[in-house]
């Protein structure tokens, strides 16, 4: 009797494990590219160097980890965008569930950077033709 209860328990555990495993959802696909709206598009001063922009990228929407970098909380990705009027740019995407505090943290970091020329909220990068 005790053996039967143990066997039933193990079978139940196996079924529960399979059910949980099969119920996993694939991550939702997120569109990227210059024709997609981003939460923040940042343009740098025309005299910002490549190294300054790379440092910005590594420290503002991202942070260093062991052996690389990771996006800050709320940030879904970062994309280099075409220059506008001589100003290099990047687009910063936010996850749909990013909190206002997470968004505000990134915006604050962007606006505090001395190499930022202009930051635009919720725009499609390829639609930006003028910054002035």
Order of helices and strands: HEHEEEEHE
Largest sheet: 4 strands, antiparallel
The geometry reads as globular
Task: Give helix % range.
Answer: 25-40%
What is the CATH fold-level name of the domain at 38-127? Alpha-Beta Plaits
What's the count of strands?
Answer: 6
Q: Per CATH, which architecture of the domain at 38-127? A: 2-Layer Sandwich
The number of helical segments is 3
Description:
The protein has 132 residues and is an alpha+beta fold. It has a domain at 38-127: Alpha-Beta Plaits (2-Layer Sandwich). It is built from three helices and six strands. It has helices spanning 2-22, 50-59, 100-112; strands at 38-44, 62-65, 68-71, 75-84, 87-94, 116-123. A four-stranded antiparallel β-sheet has the order 4-5-1-6, covered by helices on one side. β2 (62-65) and β3 (68-71) form a beta hairpin. The radius of gyration is 22 Å and the shape is globular.
Task: Please summarize what this structure is.
The protein is α+β, with helices and mostly antiparallel strands and 132 residues long.
Descriptive terms for the model:
alpha+beta; Alpha-Beta Plaits; 3 helices; four-stranded antiparallel sheet
Secondary-structure map:
Blueprint: H1 2-22, E1 38-44, H2 50-59, E2 62-65, E3 68-71, E4 75-84, E5 87-94, H3 100-112, E6 116-123
Antiparallel strand pairs: 1-5, 1-6, 2-3, 4-5
């Amino acid at each position: 009797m005790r053996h039967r209860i143990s066997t039933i328990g193990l079978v139940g555990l196996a079924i529960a494990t399979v059910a949980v495993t099969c119920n996993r959802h694939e991550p939702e696909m997120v569109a990227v590219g210059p024709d997609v709206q981003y939460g923040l598009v940042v343009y740098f001063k025309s005299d910002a160097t490549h190294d300054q922009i790379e440092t910005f990228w590594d420290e503002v929407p991202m942070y260093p980890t062991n052996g690389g970098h990771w996006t800050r909380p709320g940030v879904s990705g970062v994309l280099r965008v075409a220059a506008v009027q001589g100003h290099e740019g990047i687009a910063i995407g936010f996850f749909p569930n990013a909190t206002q505090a997470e968004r505000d943290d990134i915006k604050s970091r962007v606006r505090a950077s001395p190499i930022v020329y202009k930051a635009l909220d919720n725009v499609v990068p390829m639609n930006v033709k003028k910054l002035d």
